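Fill in residues.
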């Protein structure tokens, strides 16, 4: 090099601005069966980050490992335990690479749950990662089913979760309560709305926040499903029970978080808002499917109030009973774009979201992979607090 001396520093990579949340309902099946749709989605929308729920690829383990064998897995790597699994891992890696992304995984030991974070190679990469809701867990710890990825970027921390379904049994309800309590504890540990670093939380959160977030008939979801629960406020369609909704409101308040979609779409319209839709019946006419032509808004991008004014785009990228734009899944992608520049102060965006939630509540009578691991506590924010859980039952709001 002429003139000698050290080379000039590399230009900084662009910050993450566009985020997509999508439940793939098996990523390898979508790649194998719906590749043209996936290619079109990534080409047309080109999100900086895609958080994928329900990857449903097993984690890397010893040769011949079996479900429940107790052998340790490498949950940040795709399994190659058989010829078919190795072929699937290669296909996923090739897909990610061909679209210019880098992948960060948290996976279960078998084809269940699991999450992935795809980050454009041309963008900044996470400078730290964790995979557990427990801030006191060892840095390399993953949630058992691979449901959590917490990545630190320059402007904010990004929490991606695939929330467990509330299910139809008392054990399942208790499991979901424990999950929500763990989320609340994490938000409290970060310092809530006073956290040192803004938080963006996205993924399939498995809750429809308000009455208007399901359709066409919210009463059907509430009164014709899940009626066997012991507590009245646990009754209803999983994801649409009063207790789940009350806990979700408490989580938003505890974290100082705003529903990014509602900042730009404050008036509920289930037909354009829902991110999950039921399938047609396998036998007989399409109407034979119990959930056909019905839907729920259960995928979210939640942003810190300080970023609410930066939300410039929020789109549900699918619709219709035939599930246009769902890329072969039962969920469609949710896309949110943040403005460039420094973090915004709380502004009209957060107030619009709160107004939309307030209107919905009023209508129903309700109360409103190579990054180093994060050291324990780092990136979790300042101002950790102790005390009772912020979560309350619906009848305590």
């Amino acid at each position: 090099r002429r003139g000698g001396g050290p080379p000039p520093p590399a230009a900084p990579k662009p910050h993450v601005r566009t985020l997509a949340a999508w439940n793939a309902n098996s990523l390898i099946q979508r790649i194998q069966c719906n590749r043209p749709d996936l290619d079109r989605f990534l080409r047309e929308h080109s999100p900086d980050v895609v958080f994928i729920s329900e990857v449903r690829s097993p984690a890397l383990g010893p040769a011949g490992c079996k479900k429940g064998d107790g052998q340790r897995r490498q949950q940040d790597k795709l399994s190659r335990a058989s010829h078919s699994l190795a072929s699937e891992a290669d296909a996923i890696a090739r897909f990610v690479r061909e679209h210019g992304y880098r992948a960060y995984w948290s996976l279960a030991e078998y084809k269940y749950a699991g999450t992935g974070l795809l980050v454009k190679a041309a963008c900044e990469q996470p400078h730290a990662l964790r995979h557990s809701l427990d801030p006191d867990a060892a840095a390399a710890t993953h949630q058992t089913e691979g449901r959590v990825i917490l990545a630190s970027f320059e402007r904010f921390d990004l929490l991606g979760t695939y929330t467990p379904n509330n299910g139809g049994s008392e054990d399942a309800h208790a499991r979901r309560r424990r999950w929500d309590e763990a989320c609340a504890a994490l938000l409290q540990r970060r310092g809530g709305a006073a956290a040192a670093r803004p938080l963006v939380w996205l993924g399939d959160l498995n809750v429809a926040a308000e009455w208007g977030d399901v359709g066409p008939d919210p009463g059907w979801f509430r009164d014709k499903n899940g009626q066997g629960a012991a507590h009245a406020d646990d009754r209803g369609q999983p994801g649409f029970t009063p207790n789940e909704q009350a806990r979700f409101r408490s989580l938003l308040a505890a974290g100082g978080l705003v529903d990014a979609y509602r900042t730009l779409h404050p008036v509920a319209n289930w037909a354009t808002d829902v991110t999950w839709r039921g399938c047609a019946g396998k036998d007989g006419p399409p109407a034979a499917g119990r959930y056909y032509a019905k839907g729920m808004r259960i995928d979210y991008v939640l942003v810190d109030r300080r970023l609410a004014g930066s939300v410039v785009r929020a789109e549900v990228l699918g619709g219709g009973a035939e599930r246009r734009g769902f890329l072969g899944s039962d969920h469609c992608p949710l896309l949110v774009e943040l403005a460039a520049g420094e973090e915004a102060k709380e502004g009209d965006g957060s107030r619009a979201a709160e107004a939309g939630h307030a209107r919905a509540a009023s209508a129903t009578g309700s109360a409103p992979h190579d990054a180093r691991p994060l050291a324990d506590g780092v990136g979790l924010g300042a101002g950790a607090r102790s005390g009772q859980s912020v979560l309350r039952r619906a009848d305590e709001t």
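The longest strand covers residues 18-23.
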